[in-house]
Design a protein that fits this description.
Blueprint: E1 7-16, E2 19-29, E3 34-38, H1 45-52, E4 60-65, E5 68-69, H2 75-81, E6 83-86, H3 98-105, H4 112-125, H5 141-154, E7 159-163, H6 171-184, E8 189-193, H7 197-203, E9 207-211, E10 214-219, H8 221-226, H9 228-235
Helix pairs in contact: 3-5, 6-7
């Protein structure tokens, strides 16, 4: 890596009561990175996302975005500086059309012509062209997930945090989601929390494993998959 990373989080820690949810976790992301974070339920994955997205303030540790400290910024500033997050359950405007959902999500100051052109490109990228006048509530589950990814992208983020984007999807939808994210790789930084190992394998990107709030392994997914400690954690032997 050369120059300043897009995001640097150092030694993050947070406790809830007597429980250490995240302990000493560090993350460095360059522009255009695609990363996965895996781990059993309760490992601290979503808590880590909450700290990076500004909805939780760490008890200790630092987070710099484009060289600027961001811990303690108002939550609404995170979207403004370029950090977007998609939660596991789609949060759409069910009564609005697909096009209207994308239009609402467009935060840039631009002409209506430019915004319409971006919406058309997004519909094509999400393979939702032809469904632009359907209401979001009518869409299949996978289509709702893709639409919400599109809504996050309409804000022009530099970092996109995706929390279990394939939850509830079938195998074909899961593979399509992998192709969608791989197609975006290099154009923005994407971090994915996921449980579906078929999906993570399809992404074949650097992967971090959390367990009981700590990083127990990190590296290429092919190496992570062979790691005995990781296997033990997922099989419940530790």
């Amino acid at each position: 890596m050369t120059g300043e990373p897009l995001l640097r989080a150092d030694n993050l820690a947070i406790r809830f009561g007597g429980v250490a949810a995240v302990r000493g976790v560090s993350v460095v992301l360059a522009e255009g990175d695609l990363r996965c974070i895996i781990g059993p339920n309760g490992a601290g994955k979503s808590t880590l996302f909450n700290m990076i997205a500004g909805t939780l303030k760490p008890d200790s540790g630092t987070i710099d975005f484009e060289g600027r400290p961001i811990v303690g910024l108002p939550v609404h500033d995170f979207a403004r500086i370029g950090i977007a997050r998609k939660f596991q359950v789609p949060s759409l405007f069910a009564s609005l059309t697909v096009r209207e959902n994308l239009d609402v999500a467009a935060r840039r100051r631009e002409s209506a012509l430019d915004r319409d052109a971006r919406i058309e490109r997004m519909l094509a990228e999400l393979e939702l062209a032809g469904l632009e006048e359907a209401t979001a509530g009518e869409l299949a589950h996978g289509q709702k997930q893709w639409l919400e990814i599109g809504m996050a992208l309409m804000g022009g983020p530099k970092l996109l945090l995706l929390d279990e984007p394939t939850a509830g999807m079938g195998s074909e939808e899961t593979q399509k989601t992998a192709r969608l994210l791989l197609g975006m790789a290099g154009t923005l930084t994407i971090v994915v929390i996921e449980h579906d190992m078929h999906f993570v394998r399809a992404l074949a990107c650097p992967t971090m494993v959390l367990h009981q709030g700590q990083v127990i392994a990190a590296g290429a997914f092919a190496d992570i998959e062979r790691d005995e400690l990781v296997r033990d954690v997922y099989l419940g032997r530790r």
